[in-house]
Amino acid sequence: MTTYKIALIPGDGIGKEVIPAGRQVLESLSAADPEISFSFESFPWGGDYYRAHGAMMPADGLEALRGKDAILFGSAGDPDIPDHITLWGLRLKICQGLDQYANVRPTRILPGIDAPLKRCRPEDLNWVIVRENSEGEYSGAGGRVHQGLPMEAATDLSMMTRAGVERIQRYAFGLAQSRPRKHLTVVTKSNAQRHAMVMWDEVAREVAQEFPEVTWDKEMVDAATARMVNHPATLDTIVATNLHADILSDLAAALAGSLGIGPTANINPERATPSMFEPIHGSAFDIMGKGIANPIGTFWTAVMLLEHLGEIEAARRVMAAIERVTANPALHTRDLGGTATTAQVTAAVCAQVASTRSCLTPA
Ligand code: IPM
Ligand code: MG
What we know:
This protein starts with a strand and ends with a helix. The radius of gyration is 20 Å and the shape is globular. It has helices spanning 15-32, 47-53, 61-66, 83-97, 162-178, 196-208, 221-230, 242-255, 296-308, 312-326, 342-355, 357-360, and strands spanning 2-11, 36-42, 70-75, 102-108, 126-132, 136-145, 153-159, 183-188, 215-220, 237-240, 263-267, 275-279. α7 packs parallel to α8, α9 (296-308) runs antiparallel to α10 and α10 (312-326) crosses α11. α1 links the parallel β1 (2-11) and β2. By secondary structure, the protein is an alpha/beta fold. Helix content is 40%, strand content 22%. Bound molecules: 3-isopropylmalic acid and magnesium ion.
């Protein structure tokens, strides 16, 4: 039996509701499968911690995470604390500190979900966006001068290193190769951004040589948004810079029916540090504390966590449970047009996890 050490960081807003729900699903998995167990440790970091301690997480927080097999993260964001403090003080601190340089965002239209594109069949939209997660527009380089004076100036410098671009391109080509379509779209903006994005394109051409089985194309980021809407079936694996992929992944999630469903993995492919798994939706203060947050994003995130741990059958089992539940409109939360609560959806997925084993193990 394997016991995985999982750090839970609920964070802020609905993170505090969906992460306990995710834990319940993982517990129902280990109750049903004697081969897998989890040892959870919860870290109360985020906005409340900031109010008490003046920091989103303790100075030695990263050290506490290093010994874990994976991290399940809710969200960071607080109405009373500036967004750049909550982001840089917690999520980016962990992603950059643990060098989780590949942010992976799969998107599919799950059964039962009414997606907005009327001409798009569910099989037409099956994408994985690979987001550069350590530098680029989120490098943090830049500054403000003459603050408060009429001549005030500010810069946010997008920093791209050849090593950073190479490793994310290599990861994306490798991921594309592992998927049936073996196709990668490299998103760029090298027509207007004439230094770093030109290097980005050059590196893509070089790395492509290592992956002769993968076909690839290049798309400007603005044209990529139109292609996602008009020709979704022409896309499969997509790699983009930190900011470009941030924007494209929200569009992808909306096209798949709801931001409440999408999962994310912040991966350190070398496994030198634990990777971190989080729903895409954020803290959603407008609905926090009401018990109506959609936990499906966290459950799909837990599937990615299990895949990363190499627990492929368990991952399939949880995904099958999720899809049975989304197929039933009576179990849709408000973001999907339904009235189900977080607790009802969680109980339904746990029940499916407990009963699906026989469907997955061939006779
Ligand atoms: C995401 C989010 C974050 C980001 C926000 C909360 C800063 O939008 O994970 O996509 O931009 O990285
Ligand atoms: Mg985003």
